[in-house]
Amino acid sequence: MGWGRAGARLARRGAAWLAVASLAGCATVEQSAPLSTIRELTVTPSDPTAGCAAMLWPVDGALSSPFGRREGRAHDGIDLAVAEDTPVRAACDGVVAYAGNGLRGYGNVLILSHSGALATVYAHNRALEVRQGEVVVRGQIIARSGQTGRASAPHLHFEVRKDSIARDPLGYLPAK
Ligand SMILES: [Zn+2]
Cα of 151 to ligand 1 centre, how many Å? Predict the structure, then answer.
């Protein structure tokens, strides 16, 4: 099956998922992310050329907050401090599973679905440059950074999910 059909399928699933999404934001986490819902976004594209073995850094910014527990609350990604309007790039080839501002706390957010049951999340953007269902390639500019949602300063909140579960992105990104 080609990318187009896979993308359309993901778009439908993304829309259904959004209706029940209640993800915790970057700065405030009042409840755990419902893993059964984000699972819908980790469908594996069938294109074998769309590997995600080597991710690239979505922005070049200082790590301002690490993955993991923070003041007793889960932080499902890493925060990278960047100036407003910095280009945000796709970490690897994939399909836009969600593009919008419907996830509480995330502001304007993109979710890309990749092969290998991987998904990446890009939050707090000022502007989104791609639409749900679009195929993107590694390094493509997909958004412009900002501080929408729960963010006290411009930064990119970046998540990597494997089988729907948030993992430390530093385990997937090349060492700086
Ligand atoms: Zn964050």
Answer: 8
